[in-house]
Amino acid sequence: MTRASRSDITRRRLASQALTGSITEPAQVVDRMLAVQAQDLRWAKWAVAVRAPGSTSADIDTLIDSARIVRSWPMRGTLHLVPGPDLAWMLGLTTARLWAGAATRRRDLGLDEATIERSRTVAENALSGGRELTRAAFLALLERHGIGTDGQRGYHLIWHLAQSGTLCWGRQLDAQQMLVLLSDWVPHPRQLERDQALGEYLLRYLAGHGPAPLTDFAWWSQLTMSDAKTALAVAGGQLNTLDVDGVSHLLPQSSDLGPLGRAAPGRGPSAVLALPGFDEYLLGYRDRSFAIEPENLTRVVPGKNGIFLPVLVRGGRIFGTWRRDWQPRAITVHPAPFTPQGAASLPGTDRALHEYARFLGRPVQVLPASPTVPAAP
Asked: Where a domain ends, among 185, 217, 235?
């Protein structure tokens, strides 16, 4: 075991998360991260592209439309982008627990097993052979078969069919994704035995998020600690351990413990990054104090309502938020650091936000920075 400082962990996480510019292909980003939170698809695309400098929104669209990366609910009941071949084995580990946890909600919505299985039959008959439907068209189809979709029933039927490996989101058409059969969309999934899959899960998490303690992996994956310990038993021979204040932080042996390599231009130690809302740099850990002071967390999650704002990062530390406003002919972005910034720091923020503009391929006006107002206690 090697002793390390908190700043060591922060610097190494920047590298693991591909935020030092070491990756140029966006598909490799998702391979590295394994899962990128994606309930807001536009933010998820930027989460991938910011880790592969020079990538555009159209590049990410191509990966989604080709099934190279797939949007579904692999864990935590939340939409993520994952490598297409890996989705099936991830569902195999997470579905049973999520299904059990949703039992009360199913009962409240009147979704018994018979109704879900009827919906599955409708979906398979309608979508087999590579066919696709919009969300609205699929819900209308269920209604025509006597399956009510009012309220939240429609959403939960789609969620249950996706969680159990029948549906996933496919190509994009007119600013929406189509529903498809997972078996058609990803015809050659990876097949892993359960213990092998657990070990792979931990290794892939640490490759894209490490160093991190085992408890962070259990939180992120929502596996039980028993499963997390099995994963550690399987993968432990391929891991190194860093001790930080008595807490073991794991990382793959393939992650060099020596000095970190040189960052790409614009991604050095003092570079500013404009990360999207719901970014894995913050959401990927139970303990978020390595990235942000606890007193500032409510500025990123106002009201603690689960909505994570886009963040500005310098040297691995979150120092502010930013917002985007979509107008008919232009987009404006507005940085909001937690404290007033000196003139020397402004070019870095401006560069990071213009990198986002290049990703969009649309005109973006960067407004002057202004400090945020502290959240009320």
From this structure: 185
